[in-house]
Amino acid sequence: MELKIQVPPLGESVVEGTIVKWLKKVGDEVKLDEPLVELMTDKINVEIPSPADGKITKILAEPDTVVPVGETIGIMDAIEGSVKDGKAFQTEAEDKHVPEKPQEQKSPEPDEAFQQVMDHQRRTGMHAPSEDVEEGIKEKKSSPLVRKMAREHHIDLRKIKGSGRNERVTKEDVLKYIEQRHTVDFDEAFKWPTEEDVETVPFSGVRKVIAEHMTKSAYTIPHVTTFDEADMSEVIEWRKKYVDIIEEKHGVRPTYMPFLVKASVYALKDFPWVNSELSEDEKNLKIKKYYHIGFAVGRDNRLIVPVLKHADRKSFIEITKELTELGKKANEDKLSMDEIQGGTFSITNAGMYGATASTPIIAHPQVAILGVHNVKERPWVVDGEIVIRPIMNLGLSFDHRIVDGAYAVQFLRRLIEYLENPEMWMLNVV
């Protein structure tokens, strides 16, 4: 029985991925759930498993190809009765005469492509790549997308050591080369215009998806941000007293984040509408009785938000360990789809980069997001006297359709009260 190998759902708001490499080749025997192909999304790398026992018969999308969710990327001959139920992306091939390659617009031949680039450059006043550069583009193994990028940036692909199979140059290799180059390569046979130098890079992949998410959130949700200040003296003193002991016993060093997570959970319980979601038809409000806290992790010029599930059921040490593990996975690009979905409230820490204030954008369909900023020593009035205290600015962006200003201000103030008095909840007094 022939089965299509299709791109499965890849998580909230993820609509496409790029094939990194095939883990099996045509003719290979495979088992149910055995990894077949590695796919890169804007959030994580995932391995698509085999939908059945059988044999790979066709590969329809090569490495570096961008494929949307639901796209057929291969065909396999499945053993009857071995197909796993409940996976919508595994469907029987409708046509026995499956083409060797997906039906898409044919890429122009190298000479034709070069001529098209030259024509475009003449129309726009830009210069086409030199003949040496074009020769290097033709000689090196690469995809049509990579060759197009090379022509746009006048890159001789022979200068790049490919990281793909058989030293094939990938899109990532070209982007890395552009980033490291900083300035334009001046080939002897190529002269730039006398205008100011401008480097153009494709606005696609991660940045494009992030832009789509942010635009949807900004235009769908009426954002309002309220600010307040927290005296971090108790948290800092507690860390000084116990962090070395915790590291010695548990192998982790608590940052400010586990304190923020616990304070957020307690405040969300006191103000439940902040932990809710508006239905698609805007007729019902789903007030959630579970607490999945997302925390933003920055990677280069992109962002990923792992989600700590059921934070209310976990101790301070358990939260510290899980935050450490999820953060490590995020930086190593090893998060699973389950670990980046289902958040009910999010925290983003701009303070680690030195920010003193920000107005974070809410992660749709959540209702609010907490912006955390750096801690600075400032004059502070305590019992009528001016003292120096470590103060953190906090900003809460909230959906004004659901949460009124007074409710949001009270929620943030309550969160700060829990943050300024951590021993209350550590001793289970609250």
Summarize the structure.
The protein has 430 residues and is an alpha+beta fold.
Structure description:
The structure is a single chain. This protein has 430 residues and is α+β, with helices and mostly antiparallel strands. The chain folds into 3 domains: 2-78, RNA polymerase II/Efflux pump adaptor protein, barrel-sandwich hybrid domain (OB fold (Dihydrolipoamide Acetyltransferase, E2P), Beta Barrel); 111-181, Dihydrolipoamide Transferase (Irregular), CATH 4.10.320; 207-426, 2-Layer Sandwich (Chloramphenicol Acetyltransferase). The protein contains 10 helices and 18 strands. The chain has helices at residues 110-124, 131-139, 144-153, 171-181, 205-220, 233-250, 257-270, 316-331, 405-420, 422-426, and strands at 2-6, 16-22, 29-30, 35-40, 45-49, 54-59, 66-68, 72-78, 223-231, 276-278, 285-287, 293-295, 297-299, 302-304, 307-308, 345-349, 368-382, 385-399. The strands form 5 sheets. It has a 6-stranded mixed beta sheet with strand order 9-18-17-16-12-15. The chain has a 4-stranded antiparallel beta sheet with strand order 1-8-6-3, with no helix packed on it. A 4-stranded antiparallel beta sheet has the order 5-4-2-7, with no helix packed on it. The termini are far apart. Mean pLDDT is 82; it is low at 86-111, 122-126 and 182-191.
